[in-house]
């Protein structure tokens, strides 16, 4: 009897939700048949069967939230073997469906984010209510409150009177601002899908965690545009894929991150963690309107062709929901291309736990003043805006401005003699 377990979906992923079963008990399957679809807060994945046999027992249903490594089904690989003959019974685990978890959150408006049993226990012992816990800044994945966050909060709280100890499971409702929205007969109401809810939560958490500041510069990318116009057909014939501007933007950002390593960092409480690798996330809009950020790993070690291949591969996989869990893990910096939608600039929100994100605007031909030995002349040039949103906790205006200017310099000084 083969035990099918919830697979590991990345270092930071501890559980996943079963969103769909493609088989039922009694079905005969062959190796690599898709058995189920699972979802994390980062990616949806189809899980194939590693063996051939018959589905003997399904232990979890659709919408169950299951820890990584837990047995989710039994596959009978030997006709003479039954589930009763297996040596070990699967351990009983607490399974919380999305509907149940949403009910727990919305009942009495007790909390707007997830708290682990350990965090709740510490809060209970210290007399911290959910309302007070909501004010604690989380430095974990997607703004999750970690043990050290609570301990740091408690150490800073000693100067204030300790509130009466309460049971965190039976606390008064948190006072959250609510906007009253009127609905008329002509209005259409659309329920957010799971991914849109997650994106909304992540964006709100990022604004709560990081004080955002945005700087902007205009870059003259005429040399880059002329080079691409000259090389794009050669590139497509050689590599069978398009040569876009994104690899050049990524290359410039990766070089600047090596020049200013503190921009390639994360904040852990009162510590700054400077990342040893430059892993650049590229925001990709999916056909359903949602956004996902696959990661180009070791971007500073790839040449322009390598960057182009990897970016095109990730973008294609994102559009067809074929990204693997590893494709979206461990980003240290992000780029979002507003120019795709012919927008000139934007002020993006930082992807936690990163500390900065670069936005690239559309490239436009503009009249510009150029100095020559005969005097100033007005000529057409290709220009674009770059904007950098950064975490003001560790990046000041001087550093943010210098980093952004360095990215622009690398783009303006693009070597037109390069070959693909």
Describe this structure as you would to a colleague.
With 420 residues, the protein is an alpha+beta fold. The protein is 27% helix and 25% strand. It is built from 9 helices and 20 strands. It has helices at residues 98-106, 117-126, 130-133, 147-157, 194-209, 222-239, 246-259, 304-319, 397-412, and strands spanning 2-5, 15-21, 28-29, 34-39, 44-48, 53-58, 64-67, 71-76, 96-97, 212-220, 265-268, 271-274, 280-282, 284-285, 291-292, 295-296, 333-337, 356-360, 364-372, 375-391. Strands 10, 13, 16, 17, 18, 19 and 20 form a 7-stranded mixed sheet that branches. Strands 5-4-2-7-9 form a 5-stranded antiparallel sheet. Strand 4 (34-39) and strand 5 (44-48) form a beta hairpin. Helix 7 (246-259) packs across helix 8 (304-319). The longest helix has 18 residues, at 222-239. It is globular, with a radius of gyration of 26 Å.
What are the key terms here?
5-stranded antiparallel beta sheet; 7-stranded mixed beta sheet; alpha+beta; globular; 420 residues; 9 helices; 27% helix
Q: Would you tell me the overall average pLDDT?
A: 83
Distance linking N and C termini: 53 Å
Helix run count: 9
Let me know the largest β-sheet: 7 strands, mixed
Cα shape: globular
Helix percent reads 25-40%
- Low-pLDDT runs of 5+ residues are 82-110, 159-176
> Helix- and strand-based class?
alpha+beta
């Amino acid at each position: 009897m083969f035990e099918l377990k919830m697979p590991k979906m990345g270092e930071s992923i501890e559980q996943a939700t079963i969103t769909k079963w493609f088989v039922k008990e009694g079905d005969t399957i062959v190796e690599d048949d898709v058995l189920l679809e699972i979802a994390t807060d980062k990616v949806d994945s189809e899980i194939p069967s590693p063996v051939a046999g018959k589905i003997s027992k399904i232990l979890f249903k659709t919408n169950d939230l299951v820890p990584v490594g837990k047995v989710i089904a039994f596959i009978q690989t030997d006709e003479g073997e039954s589930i009763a003959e297996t040596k070990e019974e699967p351990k009983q685990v607490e399974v919380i469906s999305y509907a149940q978890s949403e009910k727990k959150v919305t009942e009495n408006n007790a909390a707007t984010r997830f708290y682990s049993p350990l965090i709740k226990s510490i809060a209970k012992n210290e007399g911290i209510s959910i309302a007070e816990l909501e004010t604690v800044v989380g430095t974990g994945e997607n703004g999750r409150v970690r043990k050290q966050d609570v301990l740091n909060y408690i150490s800073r709280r000693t100067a204030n009177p300790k509130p009466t100890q309460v049971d965190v499971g039976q606390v008064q409702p948190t006072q959250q601002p609510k906007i009253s929205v009127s609905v008329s007969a002509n209005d259409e109401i659309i329920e957010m899908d799971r991914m849109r809810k997650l994106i909304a939560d992540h964006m709100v958490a990022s604004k709560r965690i990081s004080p955002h500041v945005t700087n902007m510069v205009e870059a003259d990318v005429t040399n880059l545009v002329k080079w691409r116009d000259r090389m794009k057909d050669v590139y497509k014939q050689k590599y069978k894929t398009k040569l876009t501007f994104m690899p050049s933007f990524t290359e410039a950002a990766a070089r600047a991150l090596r020049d200013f390593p503190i921009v390639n960092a994360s904040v852990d409480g009162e510590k700054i963690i400077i990342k040893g690798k430059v892993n650049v996330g590229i925001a990709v809009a999916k056909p359903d309107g949602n956004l996902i950020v696959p990661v180009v790993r070791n971007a500073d070690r790839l040449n322009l062709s390598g960057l182009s291949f990897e970016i095109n591969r990730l973008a294609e996989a994102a559009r067809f929901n074929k990204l693997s869990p590893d494709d979206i893990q461990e980003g240290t910096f992000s780029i979002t291309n507003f120019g795709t939608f012919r927008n000139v600039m934007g002020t993006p929100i930082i992807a936690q736990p990163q500390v900065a994100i670069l936005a690239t605007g559309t490239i436009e031909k503009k009249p510009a003043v150029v100095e020559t030995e005969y005097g100033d002349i007005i000529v057409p040039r290709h220009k674009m805006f770059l904007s950098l949103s950064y975490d003001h906790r560790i990046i000041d205006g001087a550093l943010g401005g210098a980093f952004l200017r360095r990215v622009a310099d690398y783009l303006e000084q693009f070597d037109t003699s390069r070959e693909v």
